[in-house]
Amino acid sequence: MREVILDVRGLTVVFPTHEGYVRAVSDLSYTLHRGETLGIVGESGSGKTVSSLALMGLHNRARTHIAGEAIFGGRNILSLSSDEMRALRGKDIAMIFQDPFACLHPMHRVGDQIAEAVLAHADVSKKHANRQAVELLGAVGIPRASERAQDFPHQFSGGMRQRAMIAMALVHKPSVLIADEPTTALDVTVQAQILELIERIKREFDIGVILITHDLGVIAETADTVLVMYAGREMEYGPAREIFRAPQHPYTWGLLRSMPTIELRLEQLVAIEGTPPSLVAVPSGCPFHPRCPHRFAPCATDLPELRPLTGGHLDRCHLPQETKREIGAANLAERQAAVR
């Protein structure tokens, strides 16, 4: 049995605003094991990034209500003080942010910024930190690392900036690496290289990876476990093979039907009707019911519980299992017919 390195239970994140309370994350629970990649997927605004920023202690505590637990190293990191969280962040839990160009300071050399991350948690000389920065740049595939360490972020390509951010995250060999949309705005070849790099790092350091994305294709290639989020809640959670072989929630069905493949042309894809709800006024009952083609009476009034299925597969939906099997078979037949 693999070691559990992060256990999140009932994570809730609420932002008070002049328009009301923004319930960005509601009662979210999952576990991350050593050597595992957990893929968190959902549309924009589903709470993917907000939940991970809460784990990193990067929300303004004066303007954010955070509840629940996140057990790491025997401690609830959500209850740590700012100083305790600062000692943990970047050392034991690191994050690769979505936009590397915005995260790298434009007026400082890339190597100096990585060296600064070394010095933040290690009592070493600046010369040693600079040498380690060069080694890390080389380890993540930057050619002529000693020369490129003297460059500024604007002199790096998008893929190289992302590699530099990965190098910075790996400075202290963290136990948990959170990758927030690490392949956004990269061409498909560079995307594959970045994902392969993250997978190699996971194996070499035996760490847990949380991969945040809206791309189910990325999830299918990399994730061991999948968490599907909508309107701040988990809709479906389980092993990747189960999620893709026998998805249970109508929202997951919609995501899969809108995902292009080699066989399906764009005009054969089916979009999910409507838009995600405002998190100030989340619909009652199942938050997905206004967009769900399979909704019926209880969906509008009663929030379904997460029901255990087989092999650790959880699902939040009122539809009976027999009905889901019939709809799942029809979806599969429709997809096969579209391919033909």
**What shape does the CA trace take?**
globular
H-E order: EEEHEEHEHHHHHEHEHEEHHEEH
- Helix-strand makeup class: alpha/beta
Beginning-to-end CA distance, first to last residue: 43 Å
User: Reading side by side through the largest sheet, how are the strands ordered?
Assistant: 6-7-8-3-9-10-12-11
Proportion of helical residues: 25-40%
Largest sheet: 8 strands, mixed
- Number of separate helices: 12
Number of strands: 12
What share of residues are in beta strands? 15-25%
Residue ranges: pLDDT <50 for 5 or more in a row?
A: none
Write down the Rg. Answer: 21 Å
Overall pLDDT confidence: 90
Description:
With 340 residues, the protein is of the alpha/beta class. The protein has 12 helices and 12 strands. The protein has helices spanning 48-55, 82-88, 100-103, 110-121, 126-139, 145-148, 158-169, 188-205, 216-222, 240-245, 250-257, 321-339; strands spanning 4-17, 20-33, 37-41, 65-72, 75-76, 93-96, 176-180, 208-213, 225-230, 233-239, 307-308, 314-315. The strands form 2 sheets. An 8-stranded mixed sheet has the order 6-7-8-3-9-10-12-11, sandwiched between helices. A 4-stranded antiparallel sheet has the order 2-1-4-5, with helices on one face. Strand 9 (225-230) and strand 10 form a beta hairpin. The radius of gyration is 21 Å and the shape is globular. The N and C termini lie far apart (43 Å). The mean pLDDT is 90.
